[in-house]
């Protein structure tokens, strides 16, 4: 485990891989699949209720104080990434299968991470308070923005079909629980603080349930039959290229816009992440009836690559100042 920690591969990532393998060998079927589908829907609703209960509305208002910083992070998450995803359409179906490209485009539309973005910013001696607000704000609006982007971009490009029933599912499984969580927040905040560890089990358990459901459905639909090893390697290369482009653009943008070094670190780390915790549950709702297992695969691959690369960068920044983050005026 010490060896794995050097590459920022934690037990949860290993759990996701293990669940995916188990689902591929022992997929649910028949009545078990029906029970699994309902359990997954309930778990997703509970997950987003907890998201709503944890996020204080004040965070959105505080974000306005440093609007330039947070605007750059949001532009990277919801503008730069989607543009890259749309540009990569030329890779399908020659380099990536249509399903894998759908997954790559979807990955580009999900919110930024919270925990890892803040952790890496702290390690790199960046503006931790700014990272907290930027990452939280990204997830807060992502509950609304990501489904909207999926409907606008993936429907118009023919990569996914979001019909009226899907929109109802989005409202019932994502938005409504989130709003309820916001409404009940004053009464449950203390309870959530006292029982933080048990609620983490809900977080992680729901994600593992989504992974099992997605990969189980993929096996039942024979979605993996035509996926060769070289396609997987191509996917890894594409994810690496996307991360490299975004890291480069965010580093240059932070310097060009005259941000201080701590703020440039926030832009670099918060603007380059994609959330597995939010993206997986959303995918099971947005792409119901489609090969979800293949669609979420790019997000799973990108998530691990971003952790490894950003962990190395954060440690490097902690040891010395990086020239890529220097050379601009220190002010916002």
TrEMBL record:
Pfam families: SBF_like (PF13593). The keyword Transmembrane helix applies. It comes from the Bacteria. Gene3D superfamilies: 1.20.1530.20. This is Bile acid:sodium symporter family protein. InterPro entries: Na+/solute_symporter_sf, Put_Na-Bile_cotransptr. The chain crosses the membrane at residues 7-26, 38-57, 69-92, 104-124, 131-154, 160-180, 232-259, 294-314. It comes from Rhodococcus daqingensis. Coiled coil: none annotated. Keywords: Membrane, Transmembrane, Transmembrane helix.
